[in-house]
Amino acid sequence: MRIGIDFDNTIACYDNSFHxxxxxxxxxxxxxxxxxEYVKSAMHEKGLFREFTILQGLVYGKEILKAKLFDxxxxxxxxxxxxxxxxxxxxxxxxxxxxNKIDLHSAAYKFIKSNKLEYFFNGLNQRIFLEPKKxxxxxxxxxxxxxxxxxxxxxxxxxxxxxxxxxxxxxDPYHKSSKSSLLINLSSWKEINNFFKK
Length: 198
Description:
Helices cover 41% and strands 16% of the residues. The protein is α/β, with parallel strands linked by helices. Helix 1 (15-24) crosses helix 3. It is globular and about 45 Å long. The mean pLDDT is 93.
């Protein structure tokens, strides 16, 4: 089978880095829980909208190596790469909207290499696609004729344009989304691994 996987917040977990960098910048209090969503809410409550956008640029760019792989992801790839073809397909602009002009694509490649995801890195031009627009991300999934696509955002998985042949898996580690007949909801890479082993 041919399986596409989103990158940000699906492969790369940024919860600790959002919290750590926001603390260093004095944008949040220590008591805020370590989660992108909690950090975002706390900063927006203070009116720090522009600062949160800058924070995103730092987290996804210069400070990307503070992020971690979601537990079980590397095992999932190692267990299945002999049986299936995998592709990383991400909606990612080249540079942050505001803040320092850091190449976010280069940062993503750096993270993949640093975390020893050789399966993807050795096939960089064939297995990693960083698309500047959401519509181009969907188009790429169709060009690759995917059987499955895994993403953490239900709004992406429900966008128009997906091939009817592509089944959608919602990666929902924090159980934020309600069940949908359109999506397969799984909350960990261990669950996803078990799903494909069946």
